[in-house]
Amino acid sequence: MAEAYEEIVNGESLLRPAPDRRHEIVCDRLHSLMANGVTGISTTRLLPPRSVVQVRAGTIFRPDLALVTAANGRLFLAAEVIDAKDHQIDTVIKKAIYEELNLPRLWMVDPRYDNVEIYQSGPYGLALKRILACREMLQESLLPAFTVSIQNLFRS
Question: Which homologous superfamily is 5-153 in?
Fold first, then answer.
């Protein structure tokens, strides 16, 4: 079972509750699929789930999934699996900071609705590119070997 964990936003400690079982199943499945998708890509590293990532001075996140560039360790794709009892931090606070930082890719993986919101950095911040559900496929152009159906990601 997952444990509570800490994130720091602008120097302020936020204690996050232990994720529920469904959250962890989706997180584990996404990680396993991504690990296969980045095999053989030497420019990219997949960090373990909820690894500590300092996104700026005084702000430390623990994304459910984090891909960093191998050359400099810079975060370029974060996935946050939304927890029904603790969603505001991911969907509002962290998303705003990711936008300020020009994070190239952000996925909001939502087991409450079995969908994934795909955001990409653009000239005006993070832009919602798609909301994927049902039989649609989650893919990333920067990772050609990664693909998963939304239905498979959220299966029971």
Answer: tt1808, chain A (3.90.1570.10)
What residue ranges of the chain have pLDDT lower than 70? 1
Q: Please give the sequence-ordered ranges of beta strands (E in DSSP) within the chain, or none if there are none.
A: 5-9, 12-16, 44-46, 53-56, 59-61, 65-69, 75-81, 105-110, 115-122, 125-133, 137-140, 143-149
**SS3 call for 151:** helix
- The amino acid occupying position 79 is A
Here the tokens at position 70 are: 């191998």
Under 8 Å between Cβ of 102 and 127: no
Domain ranges (residues) in the chain: 5-153
Tokens of 10: 């602008």
Q: What is the pLDDT of residue 138?
A: 97
List, for residues 66-89, the tens digit of each pLDDT value.
Answer: 999 999 999 999 999 998 888 889
8 Å CB contact between 6 and 13: yes
What's residue 1's pLDDT? 55
